[in-house]
Amino acid sequence: MNELINYIVDKIIEVYGSLEEPTYQFTHITVQDSPYKYIISELEKRYSIADIMDNNDDVSFIYKIKHDNQTLILHLSMVDKFGILARESEVYECYGLITSKTNNLTEIEQNIRTLLDNNNILLLGKDILNVHIPMNLFVAEKEDACIFQALFSDYSVVPDFIDV
Question: What are phi and psi of 139, to 5 degrees?
């Protein structure tokens, strides 16, 4: 796990330029390049999908995916091929994370995870997302910043993730 964390932190530094004085120019370029357009087009063929990205706080493409009575949230990082696939919960800001180790998946979860795996998207779990990194972000305080905020969304508080 330490190797993965080191790799992620190295990618964050590479893309932002620095932990102390990060730049966000990569977000404009990444949005224009649309690196995940194939994945999104495949999802749109099968499911109801809505773009819920907030350009002010997010450094990831975020989608709400609905099928039958299930709703999933998908984050695809602009930093590198990292993702979060989570079951939306009735509890505000609480999400059940789906990773490569998750068992007992629904058909939609299995299909999406397979699509992401086939496109080399690494789904991160709570053990990685909550790792602290000393980074100056706009919203999160340096002492509170973690991998989730650097890779996906600069919230002041990290959502409550549970591994399912």
Answer: -100, -55
12 token code pair: 């964050």
Q: Using CA atoms, how far apart are residues 95 and 56, in angstroms rounded to an integer?
A: 22
**What is the distance of C-alpha 18 from the center of its chain?**
20
How high is the pLDDT of residue 31? 93
Q: Which amino acid is at 94?
A: C
- Distance separating alpha carbons of residues 94 and 79, to the nearest angstrom: 24
Q: What is the pLDDT of residues 12-24, one digit of tens each?
A: 999 999 999 999 9
> How far is residue 143's CA from residue 132's CA, in Å, rounded to a whole number?
8
Q: What is the identity of the amino acid at 25?
A: Q
Both structure tokens of 25: 């120019």
Residues of the chain with pLDDT under 50: none
